[in-house]
């Protein structure tokens, strides 16, 4: 029970750090559990998880953002900027693709 409470407090702390940085979307190379995802959505921070290494690097270049290994290193100066972020579904299997438009460096 104490471990669950500690874990929840840590998740809330991390989500608050993201929100306080000014971010309005989280893109993560690794996954995080449903509890963390719920907290992010509760703070109106949609999240995309399991984004591949090369893709996340291209997103950082295109948006002018920096990849940060820890929430504690997040700051407004490291955030990327984009005008529109949307998800497209296509094909008979309803594959999904994230489209990021109106970026700082749109040639990426």
Tell me what the structure shows.
This protein is of the alpha+beta class and 108 residues long. Helices cover 37% and strands 20% of the residues. It has helices at residues 2-21, 34-42, 53-63, and strands spanning 26-27, 47-48, 82-90, 95-103. Helix 1 (2-21) crosses helix 2. It is globular.
Write the layout of secondary structure elements.
Layout lengths: L1 H20 L4 E2 L6 H9 L4 E2 L4 H11 L18 E9 L4 E9 L5
Helix pairs in contact: 1-2
Features:
alpha+beta, two-stranded parallel ribbon, 108 residues, 4 strands
Unreliable residue runs: none
So what's the overall shape? globular
Strand ordering within the main sheet: 1-2
Outline the biggest β-sheet: 2 strands, parallel
> Percentage of helical residues?
25-40%
- Give the distance, in angstroms, between the N- and C-terminal Cα atoms: 47 Å
Please work out how many helical segments DSSP would assign: 3
Strand content: 15-25%
